Amino acid sequence: MDQPMRMKSNGQISIVLSTQKKKTFSKELRDTPVVPKAIPPEHTALKEIEDELGALVGMEEMKRMIKEIYAWIYVNKKRDELGLKARKQALHMMFKGNPGTGKTTVARLIGKLFLKMNVLTKGHLIEAERADLVGEYIGHTAQKTRDLIKRAHGGILFIDEAYSLGRGGEKDFGKEAIDTLVKHMEDKQHEFILILAGYSQEMDYFLTLNPGLHSRFPLVLDFPDYNIEELMEISNRMMVEREYTFSHEAEKKLKEHLIWVKAVLSPMSFSNGRYVRNIIEKAIRSQAMRLLMLNSYDRHELMTIRSNDLVFEEDQE
Fold first, then answer.
1. Which run of H or E residues covers position 305?
2. Higher pLDDT, 42 or 88
3. Angle at Cα 68 formed by Cα 66 and Cα 70, nearest 5°?
4. 3-class SS of residue 193
5. Beta strand 22-25 with 13-16: parallel, antiparallel or unpaired?
6. Domain 44-223 carries which CATH code?
7. φ and ψ of 197, to 5 deg
8. Are the C-beta atoms of 134 and 165 separated by less than 8 Å?
9. Residue 167: what are its φ and ψ, rounded to 5°?
C-alpha cells in the first residue's frame, strides 16, 4: 500500500513510513554523490595510459578528458552487451594550444589507448601538414588528401597547423583539402580518427571555413602554456632521462632565464617544452666541449651541467 504523504509549509514532501519514521525529500531530486574509487584491476588499458599520462607535466584538464573518453567507450560496450542502445560516436578531435604544449605526444597516447580498447585496429599516427594535403592543380589536392586518409586507416591522422589550409582564400587548393576531409570524416568516421591541431584563435577561425566542420569535432582539448614551475619540472625530467643533473647555479640561471623569456616573448612565439628541450640539448653540447678542453672525464663532471654550459641566444648577440 502507498505511504501517506503530507505537504509541509516549507515546500518539502514528507513521506510517513509504516514504521512511523519520517523521511524527507527535496522537490528537486538530487543524486547521491558518487565517491570516486580506484580504477578496477580489469581496466589495464586505462591504467597503462594513466601511467604514461602521469609522466606528462600539467595538462590536468586533458588527462580528465582522456579518462572520460575511456569511460564512455567502456560503458557503451557494456550497454551493447545488455542489449541497450549503444550508438557509436565520432571521436574526431581538435587540439588547441601553442607550440611545445604536448599535442603530438597526447595524440600518440590516444592512438595507443584506442588500439588497446579495439576502437582502432592499428593505433598508428600519421603526422601531416599543409604541404602533405594541398596539391598543385585541380583534383590533385583531393587525391593527396584521400591517400593520407587511406594511410591513416585504423589509426589517427594528425594535422598540425591545420588552419593553414584556409589561409589562401576561396580559390586556394586548401579549401579543396578541407572539403575532402569533411566528406571522409562522415563517410569513414569509425575507420580513422582525425585530429586537427593549432593555435587557439586560428583554429576558431578555421572552423568557420566550412559549415560542416564545427559539428564534426565533438572533442576539443585545450593545451595551456606551461608556467615556470612546470617548465622547470619538464627540464629536470629531461635531465634525468638523459642521466644529467644541473648544478645549483645552473638551475637558478635557467629559471631566471625562463622567467625573462616568458615576459618578453608573445605566447605564440614561445615554444614551451620544445624551448626547454633545445636549451638542454645545447647545454649538453657546450658541456662536452668544456670537458674536452679540460680533459676531465670523471663521473660527476660527465653528469653535471654547470651555469656556464647554459648559453642562451641573447648571450650570443
1. strand 304-305
2. 88
3. 70
4. strand
5. antiparallel
6. 3.40.50.300
7. -135, 150
8. yes
9. -80, -20
Beta strand residue intervals within 152-278, DSSP E: 156-160, 193-198, 219-223, 245-246
Tell me the CA distances in angstroms from 70 to 73, 75, 141, one per residue in order: 5, 9, 35
- The mean pLDDT value for 53-72 works out to 83
Using CA atoms, how far residue 85 sits from 70, 80, 90, in Å, is 18, 6, 16
Cα distance between residue 228 and residue 269, in whole Å = 16
The boundaries of every CATH 1.10.8.60 domain in the chain are 228-316
Q: How far apart are CA 216 and CA 218, in angstroms?
A: 6
- With a cut of 70, say whether residue 26 has pLDDT above it: no
- Out of 15-19, 148-152, 202-206, the most confident range is 148-152
* Element housing 56 (H / E): none
Q: SS3 of 63, please?
A: helix
In sign, the C-alpha dihedral spanning 217, 219, 223, 224 is positive
Task: Supply φ then ψ for residue 157, to 5 degrees.
Answer: -100, 115
Average pLDDT, the chain: 82
Q: Give the single-character DSSP code of 223.
A: E
Q: Grid coordinates standing for 35?
A: 565517491
pLDDT bracket for residue 37 (50, 70, 90): low
Q: What is the spatial distance between Cα 49 and Cα 144, in angstroms, rounded to a whole number?
A: 33
**Domain at 228-316: CATH code:** 1.10.8.60
